[in-house]
Amino acid sequence: MPMEPPPDLASLSLTDIARLLAEKRLPPVENWNPAHCGDSDMRIARDGTWFHQGSPIGREAMVRLFSTILRRESDGSYVLVTPVEKLSIEVEDAPFVAVELKTEGEGRTRSLAFRLNTGDLVAAGPDNALILRETPDGPHPYLHVRAGLDALIARSVYYELMNLALDESADPIGLWSNGAFFALDGSA
């Protein structure tokens, strides 16, 4: 059964996005605990490109499928897991990249939604926090996706967020989304 193409974020309202998120069902990877079977020989680069045996995976549907069985282990490593096997996968930074932003409302009534490089949609809020994380090359913005999996927010998307925050003149600089406030200047 082929995977459906990801929806176009620009054509969706945040109500549509909330409905799609409520309908989405991911495999229960947190319940699967097979013995570790080895290495997948796969890597997710910092820019979100998936590689197998050193070559980029060109089929977007294949990347989307693999992303649904990705899990972060308690030791911080990443695995691709099914009911019968568990294979390690290297992740250079975050397994996803937030590549597009949709916003509705302003101030405390604002809602933010992001499209990931895999086509998935994530609405920022209490369960999906926006955070700045200090890295060796400076602070980087991330969005919590699910169960220990984050998305690096693409630079252009972060600039959009900062412009919105600066226009609202909040102190500290940040934005509300779905009832939660997220500082974007590293103060929280």
From TrEMBL:
This is Proteophosphoglycan. It holds the Pfam family DUF1285_N. Residues 27-94, 95-184 form the DUF1285 domain. It comes from the Bacteria. InterPro entries: DUF1285 (IPR010707), DUF1285_beta_roll_sf (IPR023361), DUF1285_C (IPR048342), DUF1285_N (IPR048341). Signal peptide: none annotated.
